[in-house]
């Protein structure tokens, strides 16, 4: 089975998996601790809507997907702020809007629509080297942001109002967290797919949270669980010829369940 | 130290602060009282620049707190009414007190041994060293309030704004927090603004009692001159029944 490693597409898939595990492992901690997990669903559907609109207008659907999901992730914070509503409510509104746009577009497209649906299902085995470079760049950006602003991020998790009142640029931090989460989610859509990315966003940090009460350890465990999910998922899909995304999701859910059982034993 | 000049603030067309002028001097220990919805919290938030007044001027430490938010807030401690700690966030009590040092330190710098020393000192002074490693989301009301006080003490502040921090505490904890605040006032040479409803439990060191009603300064007395007549007009309640309820509140 080792000869598979010499294939370019499989190398890309391996690297894509590791990057997805790291990137989603980190932003997963953010969205779980900010209590906005459904940002994952909203952004992946924004990407879907973008790619549909791209197909419709004859613009590169991947680029339109990125534009749409970045737009969605940039807008959530300021709209919540302006309206005085919770970020979760705005996420719901954006989700339904982009879903509407996507369906409208699907109805209008004459030709084949596979390219748009690729983002929904993901296709880890068709990742290109340039996909990998872009994902690596964004994952690097997220790590750098976390390292530079780690203490401010912690304060924002604690209490946004207190953070602001104590002289921390809370809005910059909060909006950046939303934006970077959106960026990572969107770029990993062709790896994992829009429907399945949600569990890779939520399961690793949740399992990590169950096992530790220390923020740094939570990040590390979440990244570790993300990588394990992606790699074992990929290998299972190769060995048993099952869809990679589905295998990744099953593994990450298993990790969550095992953490739950371990916690039950230790009583934490 | 805090100069509020003819400040008004509207929320959705309703005047919440109307034409408020207050001059709070260094070392004042001001109690702010007044009915719910009088605008006490809004006033505190204009002092540290979280809210921009629609008219009038606020000057804190010779700066406009809205324009110079970050700089001014580094010098002002603020404990909010009902501070919320999400239970899902994995932070220890010590982590929370460290949050106090984050703004002081500024961006791009890690907390150093010096910062941790301030944190330890603040926790020691408030008497929560034993809680250090406890999850911050699972504390009693009194413990939570002490953690918040330690968080602000760790910050090198000059002004401390306290918004109904005695709320939801049992009488013993109220007394404990009050004497903590008194001790801090004496020891740290702070200027304190203390919003409260508990007239019977005002710290002795209070130098001034400002009453707000319908967004206006209703009265501004030294504690000695404050009496039940003012109080009954402030709350629109019959003096006798109010006294029965509040009890002996002699300041
Ligand atoms: N952001 C806001 N938007 C609209 N109304 C507000 C806002 N903040 C406060 N208010 C209103 O202003 C009034 C005064 O509020 P507040 O300052 O919290 O009163 P207090 O602290 O004295 O109880 C209340 O009627 C409240 O509903
Ligand atoms: Mg209030």
Keywords:
heterodimer, A: 268 residues, mainly alpha, ABC transporter involved in vitamin B12 uptake, BtuC, 12 helices, B: 251 residues, alpha/beta, Rossmann fold, 6-stranded mixed beta sheet, 3-stranded antiparallel beta sheet, 23% strand, binds adenosine-5'-diphosphate, binds magnesium ion
Please bin the fraction of helical residues of chain A: over 70%
Mean of residue pLDDT of chain A? 90
User: What's the total count of β strands of chain A?
Assistant: 0
- Helical segment tally of chain B? 8
Helix/sheet category of chain A:
mainly alpha
CATH superfamily of chain A: ABC transporter involved in vitamin B12 uptake, BtuC
Largest sheet of chain A: none
What value does the Rg of chain B take, in angstroms? 18 Å
Shape of chain B: globular
Strand residue percentage of chain B: 15-25%
Which small-molecule species are bound to the chains here? adenosine-5'-diphosphate, magnesium ion
Number of DSSP-assigned strands of chain B? 9
> What is the total number of structural domains of chain A?
1
The CATH topology of chain B is given as Rossmann fold
SSE layout and pairing:
The complex is a heterodimer of chains A (268) and B (251).
Chain A: H1 8-33, H2 39-57, H3 61-83, H4 87-108, H5 114-121, H6 129-158, H7 160-165, H8 170-187, H9 189-192, H10 197-211, H11 215-240, H12 244-266
Chain B: E1 2-11, E2 14-24, E3 29-33, H1 40-47, E4 55-60, H2 69-73, E5 76-79, H3 93-105, H4 113-126, H5 141-153, E6 159-163, H6 171-188, E7 191-195, E8 208-213, E9 216-221, H7 228-235, H8 239-246
Helix pairs in contact in B: 3-4, 3-5, 4-5, 7-8
Magnesium ion (MG) binds next to helix 1 of chain B.
């Amino acid at each position: 089975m080792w000869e598979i490693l010499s294939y370019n597409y499989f190398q890309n898939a391996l690297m894509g998996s590791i990057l997805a595990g790291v990137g989603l492992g980190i932003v997963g901690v953010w969205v779980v601790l900010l209590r906005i997990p459904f940002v994952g669903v909203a952004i992946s559907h924004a990407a879907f809507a973008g790619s549909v609109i791209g197909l419709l207008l004859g613009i590169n659907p991947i680029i339109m997907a990125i534009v749409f999901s970045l737009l969605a992730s940039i807008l959530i914070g300021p709209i919540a702020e302006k309206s005085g509503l919770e970020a979760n409510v705005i996420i719901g509104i954006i989700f339904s809007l982009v879903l509407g746009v996507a369906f409208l577009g699907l109805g209008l497209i004459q030709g084949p629509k596979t390219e748009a649906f690729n983002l929904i299902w993901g296709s880890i085995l068709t990742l290109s080297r340039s996909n990998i470079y872009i994902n690596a760049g964004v994952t690097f950006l997220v790590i750098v942001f976390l390292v530079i602003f780690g203490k401010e991020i912690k304060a924002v998790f604690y209490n946004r109002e207190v953070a602001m009142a104590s002289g921390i640029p809370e809005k910059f931090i909060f909006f950046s967290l939303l934006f970077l989460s959106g960026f990572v989610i969107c770029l990993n859509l062709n790896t994992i797919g829009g429907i399945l990315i949600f569990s890779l966003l939520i399961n690793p940090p949740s399992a990590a949270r169950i096992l530790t009460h220390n923020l740094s350890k939570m990040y590390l465990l979440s990244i570790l669980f993300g990588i394990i999910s992606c790699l074992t998922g990929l290998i299972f899909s190769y060995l048993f010829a099952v869809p990679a995304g589905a295998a990744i999701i099953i593994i990450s859910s298993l990790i969550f369940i095992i953490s739950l059982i371990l916690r039950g034993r230790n009583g934490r | 130290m805090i100069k509020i000049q003819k400040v008004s603030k509207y929320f959705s067309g309703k005047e919440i602060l109307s034409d408020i002028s207050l001059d709070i001097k260094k070392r004042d220990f001001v109690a702010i009282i007044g009915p719910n919805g009088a605008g006490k919290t809004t006033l505190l938030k204009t002092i540290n620049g979280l809210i921009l007044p629609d008219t009038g001027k606020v000057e804190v430490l010779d700066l406009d707190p809205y324009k110079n938010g970050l700089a001014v807030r580094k010098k002002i401690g603020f404990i909010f009414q009902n501070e919320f700690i999400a239970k899902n966030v994995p932070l220890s009590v010590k982590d929370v007190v460290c949050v106090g040092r984050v703004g002081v330190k500024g961006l791009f710098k890690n907390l150093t041994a010096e910062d941790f020393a301030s944190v330890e000192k603040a926790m020691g002074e408030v008497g929560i060293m034993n809680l250090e490693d406890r999850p911050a989301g699972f504390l009693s009301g009194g413990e939570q309030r002490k953690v918040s006080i330690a968080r602000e003490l760790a910050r090198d502040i000059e002004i401390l704004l306290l918004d109904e921090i005695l709320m939801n505490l049992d009488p013993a904890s109220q007394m404990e927090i009050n004497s903590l605040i008194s001790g801090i006032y004496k020891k740290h040479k702070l200027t304190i603004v203390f919003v409260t409803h508990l007239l019977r439990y005002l710290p002795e060191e209070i130098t001034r009692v400002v009453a707000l009603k319908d967004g206006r300064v209703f009265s501004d007395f030294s504690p000695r001159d404050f009496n039940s007549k003012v109080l009954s007009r402030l709350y629109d309640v019959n003096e006798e029944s109010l006294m029965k309820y509040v009890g002996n509140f002699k300041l």
